[in-house]
Amino acid sequence: MVFVSDMADGGRSGPVIVLTGFGPYGLYQNNPSAAVVRRIGSEGLSDIIPNAILHTKEIPVTYAQVEANVSRLWQTCDPDLVIHVGAHPTERTIRIEQQSFGRGYCIFDVEYQVPCNNECPCGTKAADRPQSVLISDLDCTKIAAAVSQFLNSDCLLIEPSHDPGRYLCGYIYFISLSHDTKRSLFVHVPDFDNEVTEELVIKALKLIINECIRQLRTK
User: Fold this and answer.
1) Which of 56, 66, 203, 213 is such that its CA lies 20 to 30 A from the CA of 77?
2) 161 - beta bridge partners?
3) Span 134-138, average pLDDT
4) Cα–Cα distance for residue pair 170/102, rounded to 1 Å
5) Residues 196-202: contacts with CB within 8 Å, 24+ apart?
6) Domains of the chain and any CATH numbers
7) Whole-prediction pTM value?
């Protein structure tokens, strides 16, 4: 794996990175996505990306809060990279999502609400009516392979995925993709256990961030 700290930046200042996790809901009253985002927000990214400007946010599990917060983050932070993190039930597996869907959001959020017409709103650069699928320009297969090779972990699988679901994870991802497919990614993380610890998931997520910035700088 090539680290951003080893790459010439052409005199540019450090990248602006937005990292979000979700608050409690359902089985995830201690949401692992919020835990890793809080820790990375506290520790920073100087160990892998010097001079990175990091913005972190824990977002409540409601469609309205997702829509308001994501749009605000894009407008106020002017990010080079936005990564949303959510929890999923598959043990010992991190999934890096390649795409998301604009329609089919029929599951109630924690306030028993669904979006209008069960559709995602568009970002500022999208057409008035959302497309059914938006795909990230970041290569999730290459990201997963690079991080897996570097971690060399027998207990944590890192794989690309093409289905973030039709709940808040897919919803938040589609909104960011509608702002910019080049700079958006979603990562599903598992609950922690005695081997797949919070520290291991944080390490993997930092490596994913590094690989995203590397891809952006080499395009």
Assistant:
1) 203
2) 97
3) 97
4) 8
5) 196/91, 196/92, 196/155, 196/156, 198/32, 198/35, 198/36, 198/39, 200/151, 200/153, 200/155, 200/156, 201/32, 201/36, 201/94, 201/156, 202/36, 202/39, 202/40, 202/43
6) 16-217 (3.40.630.20)
7) 0.92
